[in-house]
Specification:
460 residues, mainly alpha, 26 helices, disordered N terminus
Length: 460
């Protein structure tokens, strides 16, 4: 008997190794060969197989193994169902997870802490917060003590669905009960409060972390700092940034986040100061950082510096992406260098990035603003993809030139392709056609507008 048990253990080790790399056919062969040798699989064997199928094939295939276990007179255990519920979470199947949970109860298998934690996490992630709370309540009724993972999942889930105050109430309740909270829990509640725009409360919790004897990490500071900038609390954001610099606990991602936030809020001078700070400290820049700096230079009108950064980036082996070209083309167009923007567009196409809709839209907008309407029409006609932002500047420019019939054609094309055209532009074109006496064109355009509106309503 000792040899048989030992042999089953060896078989399980082999199956585990095969299932981890997704070689399930060989794992099945090992089971068949072991049965021939009268080394019977046990519950561990089948649980390992379920895990493999859930990870590499699908949940339903994993669930069929339970039937095979019954045929082999092996009873599923809590690990069997925990593995299946984890699979349901992976594939975002909350109702399947609940059915598995009910099936487990019907079999007389008592769920454990892992079962509840996985199910609650699955329900929150799949958009069933109320059901997740009910499962948590059931957990307490069964006298299963929640752990830190349970509470972190609840706090994160409540914050995700706009219930930040409920999450904060739970957090305070845990503190009163003397539950040991760590930096992860603080980060979770701070992140939720920041997303809800509750900067002051989040900042108070940051002070509490220090008082509790914990050392806030970079994630904690960055979360609150970005929230401060988003809510236009610049002094508070810079204060946190200064603390990070004093601690010498700052990375290139953090500084780029600060720069991006400042640019979005029109604080170009402050963003430039941060960029200089980053360069002075000799941080190793990645593509995202270079794009941020190039965008900043274009905002400041420093196109020469932007192209120097571009050369530096390519010199380090980093390739320009769609975002890089969109930034440069937009910057050049806004400063009136339409020919230079055309060269960048050609360069972009040569690199196989011709699906960059944002770059094309920036170029069309630039052409229209500087009176190159015919050229803009040529670009629009040869584009494979278009959206509302492609058509809007062109229609506006044609209306300014009094070319309402052509503007009407582009409005119709935009709507027929399923895009939205600004109502103000629709009315401008209709008004222009009326003033010129083109009543048939007005009727045709109104028909297209009406049909487009009906189609949008049907989609909802």
């Amino acid at each position: 008997m000792m040899v048989c048990k030992f042999s089953t253990k060896i078989v399980n080790i082999c199956i585990s190794a095969l299932c981890k790399v997704g070689n399930l056919s060989k794992a099945e062969t090992v089971i068949i060969d072991s049965i021939r040798l009268k080394i019977l699989p046990d519950v561990v064997t089948y649980n390992t197989l379920i895990s493999g199928y859930c990870n590499f094939i699908g949940l339903e295939k994993g669930h069929t193994i339970v039937r095979r276990m019954e045929e082999a007179t092996i009873n599923p255990d809590v690990i069997t169902y925990n593995t299946l519920i984890s699979g349901a979470r992976k594939y975002k199947l909350p109702l399947y997870a609940l059915n598995l949970f009910d099936e487990m109860l019907q079999r007389g298998i008592s769920p454990d802490l892992w079962s509840y934690n996985t199910l609650i996490d699955c329900l929150f992630k799949c958009g069933f917060p109320d059901e997740a709370i009910r499962v948590y309540d059931d957990m307490e009724l069964r006298n299963i003590s929640p752990c830190l993972v349970t509470y972190n999942t609840l706090i994160c889930g409540l914050c995700r669905y706009g219930k930040a105050f409920n999450a904060l109430r739970l957090f305070r309740d845990l503190q009163k009960r003397g539950f040991p909270l760590g930096v992860v829990t603080y980060n979770t509640i701070i992140n939720g409060l920041c997303k809800a725009g509750l900067v002051r409360v989040a900042s108070e919790l940051l002070n509490e972390i220090n008082e509790a004897g914990f050392d806030p990490n970079l994630v904690t500071y960055t979360t609150i700092m970005k929230c401060c900038f988003k809510n236009r609390k610049y002094e508070q954001g810079f204060d946190i940034f200064s603390k990070l610099l004093d601690k010498e606990d700052v990375d290139v991602y953090t500084i780029c986040s600060v720069i991006s936030a400042l640019i979005k809020n029109g604080k170009i001078e402050e963003a430039s100061s941060c960029a200089n700070l980053m360069l002075e400290h000799g941080f190793e820049l990645d593509q995202a950082c270079y794009n941020t700096l190039i965008y900043l230079c274009c905002k400041e009108g420093k196109l020469e510096t932007a192209f120097q950064l571009l050369s530096e980036m390519e010199g380090k082996g980093l390739k320009c992406d769609n975002y890089t070209f969109a930034i440069l083309i937009d910057g050049l167009c806004k400063m009136g260098f339409v020919d230079a923007a055309q060269r960048e567009l050609n360069s972009m196409e040569m690199r196989g990035l011709d699906a960059n809709l944002v770059a094309y839209n920036c170029f069309i907008d630039g052409l229209c603003k500087f009176g190159e309407v015919e050229k803009a029409i040529e670009v629009v006609n040869r584009m494979r993809m278009r959206d509302s932002f492609t058509y809007a500047p062109l229609v506006h420019a044609l209306c300014k030139e009094g070319r309402y019939k052509l503007a009407s054609k582009f409005v119709q094309s935009c709507l027929k392709e399923g895009h939205i055209m600004l109502r103000s532009l629709q009315l401008a074109v209709i008004s222009g056609l009326k003033s010129l006496g083109f009543q048939k064109d007005v009727k045709k355009l109104r028909g297209v507008i009406f049909r487009a509106r009906i189609l949008r309503l049907e989609q909802f």
